[in-house]
Amino acid sequence: MSGHVSIRLASERVNHCVASNNELPQFYTPGEVITGTQDFMRGHGTYVEDDSLKASVAGVMQKVNKLICIRPLKSRYVGEIGDVVVGRVLEVQQKRWKVETNSRLDSILQLSSVNLPGGELRRRSAEDEQMMRKHLQEGDLISAEVQSVFSDGSLSLHTRSLKYGKLSQGVLIKVFPSLIKRRKNHFHNLACGVSVIIGNNGYIWISPQKQDIMVDDNREDIQNYEMQNA
């Protein structure tokens, strides 16, 4: 017996109701009709055809009042002020570093936006500019915070906190930025002795925790050894 198989194109699937903010986000494919009504405004990732609002990319719908957008699952990072990012230094320029942060344009780290060795707070001089490559050079990985967003969408970073700065002795993992949610804390110390920095730009840094404090047992052993050999 041969059965009949019915195939429906994405453009033929119509969602007559649009999910509200309290409901789980719905996934849409390119060409799929989001809504057949005219009560909504067209946002990013959508287009109007045959009096219907359709998705132009594969992603999840976001609705703000009457504005409907489709956020693609695979896209470049779009930064916001206060985001924690992990980036790689591409070039040392005059009074600034160019940093790759998985965004559409390269980010900028100004010389005035970093902590000098020793945490000294003063105006940057010509000597500091000459020593820039000793502080950060091409290929170095850093953690930073988005300080501002320029009109063209590029990001201005800063590392004026002890938790930010140059990264070493670890592994960099890259994921899609859409998989990272914005949280109050993106720095985590796991019980297994591993530190994790989850960048909003999809770059995740995994490194061993810094052993600043000795274990009590080890401290007692050292003290006993010193007393025996005194």
TrEMBL record:
Give the PROSITE patterns listed for this entry. S1
Question: Which BP terms from GO are recorded?
Answer: CUT catabolic process; exonucleolytic trimming to generate mature 3'-end of 5.8S rRNA from tricistronic rRNA transcript (SSU-rRNA, 5.8S rRNA, LSU-rRNA); nuclear polyadenylation-dependent rRNA catabolic process; poly(A)-dependent snoRNA 3'-end processing; TRAMP-dependent tRNA surveillance pathway; U4 snRNA 3'-end processing
Which proteins does it associate with, and in what oligomeric form?
Component of the RNA exosome core complex (Exo-9), composed of EXOSC1, EXOSC2, EXOSC3, EXOSC4, EXOSC5, EXOSC6, EXOSC7, EXOSC8 and EXOSC9; within the complex interacts with EXOSC4 and EXOSC7. The catalytically inactive RNA exosome core complex (Exo-9) associates with the catalytic subunit EXOSC10/RRP6. Exo-9 may associate with DIS3 to form the nucleolar exosome complex, or DIS3L to form the cytoplasmic exosome complex. Exo-9 is formed by a hexameric base ring consisting of the heterodimers EXOSC4-EXOSC9, EXOSC5-EXOSC8 and EXOSC6-EXOSC7, and a cap ring consisting of EXOSC1, EXOSC2 and EXOSC3.
Q: Which InterPro entries match?
A: Exosome_cplx_N_dom (IPR025721), Exosome_RNA_bind1/RRP40/RRP4 (IPR026699), KH_dom_type_1 (IPR004088), S1_domain (IPR003029), S1_RRP4 (IPR048565)
Q: What is this protein called?
A: Exosome complex component RRP4
S1 motif domain spans which residues? 82-160
Q: Where in the cell is it found?
A: Cytoplasm; Nucleus, Nucleolus
Which Pfam families does the record associate with it?
ECR1_N, KH_6, S1_RRP4
Task: Give Gene Ontology CC terms.
Answer: cytoplasmic exosome (RNase complex); nuclear exosome (RNase complex); nucleolus
Please provide the record's keywords in A-Z order: Cytoplasm, Exosome, Nucleus, Phosphoprotein, RNA-binding, rRNA processing
Q: Which family does it belong to?
A: Belongs to the RRP4 family.
**Record's keyword annotation contains Nucleus:** yes
